[in-house]
Amino acid sequence: MNKNKIQSFIELARLDKPIGIYLLLWPSLLGLLLAGINSQISVKSILIVIIGSVLVRSCGCVINDISDYKLDKLVSRTAGRPLAVGNISIIEAWIFFIVLALISFALLCFTNTLTIKLSFFFGFLIVLYPITKRFISAPQFILGITFGSGSIIGYSLETSVFSVSILTLYIGIVAWIVSFDTYYALQDKDDDLEIGVNSTAILWAENAIIYSKILHLAFYASLLIVAIINSFSYFFFFIFLGLFYLFLHQNKLLKNSDYLGAFKINNWIGMISVFGFALEIIFLN
């Protein structure tokens, strides 16, 4: 296999654009850390979450491009993707997806029965998500439910006792994902309208940004509720200050129509949230 072909597979899995991995990893770590309130978090679980985030995000990107390669040719931002330009064939992409899926399943062998069941259920939604853009007017909610599941799966690695805290966190994370993926979708709004692909950016029209801001604040509210339920220290207040600073900075980017920048800043939001949880649960609990 030559270097150009290897590079094409890297691009197909978006390994050259790791922000998607981070935005899947942070929710998963939040769930895992929350489980640490009632049990000690193992190194094995941390490694499973990290490796799983890379594999699941890669699987999601590959199946998305297999489903959308004809449409990707019509959208300026995606016209250069490997399947769209023919650097990789559909058969090669399917084989790549199957290999990634098998490795993901192999990783599940190191987990428990509950985690396996949850992973198979949400894995089905990952495969289903790409086609929802054609017949569901708000596919970002399916994306949020699917990729937000990392929090539940991470939590299930350490405990089978589901709490109000993990439910609250999951709902907040779903809202957060819908919010930042709406900003991402605003980049392609005109192209999506032309080719008939749905998104919350189209559904909510001129209200897309304000609705996304509300959903973003709902995520912050979920973190606050979890903090109160679990008696986090006053230090978590400073975490919130950092998060609100990033929220205000995100608003500045939106005012300048920098939708990609508004999307990317969520990496820092997730990172700070995880840092806050880690500090409270591992060191101060």
How are the elements arranged and paired?
Blueprint (H helix, E strand, L loop, with lengths): L2 H10 L6 H17 L7 H30 L9 H4 L4 H19 L4 H23 L3 H9 L1 H8 L7 H23 L2 H7 L4 H4 L4 H22 L6 H20 L3 H6 L1 H19 L1
Helix pairs in contact: 2-3, 2-8, 2-9, 2-15, 3-5, 3-6, 6-7, 6-8, 7-9, 8-9, 9-12, 12-13, 13-15
Key structural traits:
single chain, 285 residues, mainly alpha, Tetracycline Repressor, domain 2, 15 helices, 78% helix, globular
Count up the domains: 1
CATH superfamily: UbiA prenyltransferase
| Count of distinct strands | 0
Mean pLDDT: 93
Gross CATH architecture: Orthogonal Bundle
Low-confidence stretches: none
Name the beta content range. under 5%
**If you compute it from the alpha carbons, what radius of gyration comes out, rounded to the nearest whole angstrom?**
19 Å
* CATH class call: Mainly Alpha
Distance between the termini: 51 Å
Count of discrete alpha- or pi-helical segments spanning 4 or more residues: 15
Main sheet characteristics: none
Helix-strand pattern: HHHHHHHHHHHHHHH
Percentage of residues assigned to helices: over 70%
Broad structural category: mainly alpha
Shape: globular
Task: Please name the CATH topology.
Answer: Tetracycline Repressor, domain 2
